[in-house]
Design a protein that fits this description.
CATH topology: Chemotaxis protein chec
CATH superfamily: Transcriptional regulator MraZ domain
Strand order of the largest sheet: 1-7-8-4-3-5
Number of helices: 5
Number of strands: 8
Order of helices and strands: EEHEEHHEEHEEH
Shape: globular
Number of domains: 1
CATH architecture: 3-Layer(aba) Sandwich
CATH class: Alpha Beta
Strand content: 25-35%
Oligomer: single chain
Structural class: alpha+beta
Distance between the termini: 25 Å
């Protein structure tokens, strides 16, 4: 599984090329297919390995195309997705429509967690992160999540 944790400050060039941090490039290179699928969501971009995206597509294929809210989701999230791959210098070319939707140019932030990555305009990221922290502090979060699975025998810390 593509698993890298962290937040990385990067700079997109004027042609829309974004350098991937070395840790992300290394993990991506370990995959059978080192391409990523990018799609716009929540003000930024989400990126998945091609294999994970294919699994998601199989699930998306099982929904009704006649339900308006489902179709709206498919148009907003799935229809604009694009495959990208790193060039010889470890950069990905983010397609112009995705750059526009995410407001990407210049300073960007890449976050990676739970087997996906997100790409944000640096200013949008700061606003989004501040909002997320405020939401959690006022009672948001995952109240029903148990951090430790009793079936895991990991011993004491």
């Amino acid at each position: 599984m593509f698993q890298v944790r962290g937040q990385f400050d990067v700079r997109m060039d004027s042609k829309g090329r974004l350098p991937l941090p070395a840790r992300l490039r290394e993990k991506l290179a370990e995959q059978d297919d080192p391409r990523l699928v990018l799609t716009a969501w929540d003000g930024g971009l989400q990126g998945f390995t091609v294999e994970r995206w294919r699994r998601m597509e199989r699930r998306f294929a099982g929904v009704s195309l006649f339900d308006r809210s489902t179709r709206a989701f498919l148009l907003a999230y799935v229809a604009g997705a694009a495959e990208v791959e790193t060039d010889g210098q470890g950069r990905v070319l983010v397609p112009a429509p995705l750059r526009r939707r995410a407001g990407l140019s210049g300073d960007c932030v890449i976050t990676s967690y739970l087997g996906l990555l997100e790409i944000w305009d640096a200013t949008r990221w700061e606003r989004r992160l501040e909002q997320a922290v405020a939401d959690v502090e006022t009672g948001g979060g995952l109240p029903d999540l148990s951090l430790f699975d009793p079936a895991d025998d990991l011993g004491d810390l």
